[in-house]
Design a protein that fits this description.
This protein is of the alpha/beta class. The chain contains 13 helices and 6 strands. Helix 5 crosses helix 8.
Length: 308
């Protein structure tokens, strides 16, 4: 029997609901595999499970990280490995759920053997980048590491800074480290993967409806509290879907209607990219409709659809 079920899918596809039903049925624990839900600042805007939901089954890596931190994929993998070791000891099923495809990739394929960047180097690189436009950072990276630059969007400030930090810290381009990988946390026979694939028009409607609910429940206040912290705009939490647009509204640069429309369109584009990533980077995942996710997950763990 597999040790872990990996549930991926685009944003707003119902992944968390499927995971919770399975965890309750099978006595399993849920591990977050979403790079924004790790941050405690944005429960509503990242659709993090509610307190009532977390009481129904064990949840790990949700809201545990302060938004002032840049929580890397390497740190996430360390936590995931610890959860797997604990689950093996207790013989407990694990359900990894989220929309960050890279997390699933490093979990099943291993992480590139990239050295950690000292905090002093990180501070230095970010100080030098202060005031520079993001395309200028891309040009700077292209001169030092053309292979990595070619793979990154000129607008992806966070990953550009990360690549520049590696060069300063090691004297080597990031691309030179990406061939070697450590052993995967889960071997091929220890996991099964599901990708929840809703019909596109229904998903687009769901994204819009969910954002409206987030606003009604207080997402704007949540973003206002985050903005008041004065954090570096390059930090991941400041770039979560909806945050830049709602901050623009709070700064009176956009109406709430305009901010909402841009946030919804941004999220829909992200969902489209999640489909593309899954199609090309997640070959071991079985695509199922969201309504079939619970039955498919139970089957993957070796239980019939009727098992309760």
């Amino acid at each position: 029997m597999i040790r872990a079920l990996l549930i991926a899918g685009p944003t707003a596809s119902g992944k968390s609901g499927v995971a919770l039903k399975l965890a309750e049925r099978l006595g399993g624990r849920i591990v977050n595999a979403d790079s924004m839900q790790v941050y405690r600042d944005l429960r509503l805007l990242t659709a993090r499970p509610s307190e009532a939901e977390t009481r129904r089954a064990g949840h790990l890596l949700y809201g545990e990280i302060d938004g002032a931190e840049n929580f890397s994929v390497g740190r996430w993998l360390e936590r995931a490995r610890a959860a797997i070791a604990e689950a093996r000891q207790a013989d407990t099923p694990l359900i990894f759920v989220g929309g960050t495809g890279l997390y699933f990739r490093v979990l099943t394929e291993g992480l590139s053997d990239i050295p950690r960047v000292p905090e002093a180097v990180r501070t230095q690189v970010r100080a030098e980048a202060e005031g520079l436009a993001t395309p200028a950072l891309h040009d700077r990276l292209a001169a030092a590491d053309p292979l990595t630059a070619a793979r990154l969007r000129p607008s992806d400030r966070q990953r550009l800074l990360r690549a520049l930090e590696i060069i300063v810290a090691t004297g080597r381009p990031l691309a030179s480290f990406q061939g070697a990988r450590d052993a995967p946390a889960l071997q091929a026979d220890e996991w099964a993967g599901l990708f929840l694939a809703p019909e596109r028009d229904a998903l687009n409607r769901r994204v819009g409806e969910r954002f409206a609910v987030m606003l009604r429940e207080g997402a704007l206040d949540e973003v206002a509290a985050l903005a008041a912290r004065g954090l570096d705009p390059a930090l991941p939490v400041r770039r979560a879907h909806g945050v830049p647009h709602l901050i623009a509204h709070l700064d009176r640069r956009l109406s709430l209607e305009e901010a909402s429309e841009r946030a919804i369109n941004d999220t829909r584009r992200y969902a489209k990219r999640q489909f593309t990533w899954a199609r090309h980077q997640m070959p071991g995942f079985r695509w199922v409709a969201p309504e079939a996710g619970e039955a498919a997950g139970a089957e993957a763990f070796g239980f019939s659809a009727s098992h309760r």
